[in-house]
Amino acid sequence: MQYLSDKSVAARYDIARSTVWLWLQKGKLPKPVKINGTRTRWPLADLEAFEQRQGGAA
């Protein structure tokens, strides 16, 4: 499974990293997972499923 950092998510949607966290707070992104208890990452499959539900855009 592939995981994306907040920096990668920001690049994917062409937004600032701070916007990633704002969108997360507003429920506009799926919840990330913790890897090794410290790193926050988004599973790519979760983002792709989210995009499908949103009609292709976040």
Automatic annotation (TrEMBL):
It holds the Pfam family HTH_17. It comes from the Bacteria. Residues 3-54 form the Helix-turn-helix domain. Signal peptide: none annotated. Transmembrane segments: none annotated. InterPro entries: DNA-bd_dom_put_sf, HTH_17. This is AlpA family transcriptional regulator.
